[in-house]
Design goal:
two-stranded antiparallel ribbon, about 25% helix, alpha/beta, about 20% strand, single chain, Spore Coat Polysaccharide Biosynthesis Protein SpsA, Chain A, 8 strands
Length: about 150
């Protein structure tokens, strides 16, 4: 709760407070469930999915007749089984099959759906290069202080 209380908003990005940054990057299973004696398990068939990638997001969203998911200002021609998101300008895609296209005000990513997890490699490369397009968990004030 402290991390949420200390949160700041930077354009459309919410940065949680320092308490979140201090948390180890452990799964909930390991960090909480394996260590408690006060847990209960209740069967639930909710069709839940861990939507942790663009490909997984595609899997849970409603598709058009060609199996595409289009969000934002998107025109598709001859595309199949693709996820195309536009947040700031028109995206026209022609002849794509099984692709993910993500357009934001500061970057465009185009990748095969089956390879969606590799976006992490690109993000790490951009971070290493100090690219401004990569939003990290530091606050705007902390980033300015580092410059």
């Amino acid at each position: 709760m402290r991390a949420l209380g200390e949160a700041t908003v930077d354009d459309d990005f919410t940065r949680l407070g320092s308490a979140f940054l201090e948390c180890p990057s452990d799964s909930i299973d390991y960090a909480v469930m394996e260590k408690t004696t006060k847990a209960a398990v209740v069967p639930l068939d909710a069709g839940w999915s861990d939507v942790g990638s663009w490909s997984a997001l595609y899997d849970v969203l409603e598709k058009d007749a060609d199996g595409n998911v289009a969000r934002g200002d998107v025109v598709l021609e001859g595309c199949k089984a693709s996820y195309v998101l536009s947040t700031s300008r028109l995206v026209a895609a022609i002849g794509l099959e099984n692709f993910v296209v993500i357009e934001t005000a500061d970057a465009v990513a185009v990748l095969p759906r089956h390879d969606a997890q590799r976006i992490k490699v690109v993000v790490d490369r951009l971070k290493s290069a100090g690219r401004a397009e990569v939003r990290d968990s530091a606050t705007p004030a902390a980033r300015r202080a580092e410059e």
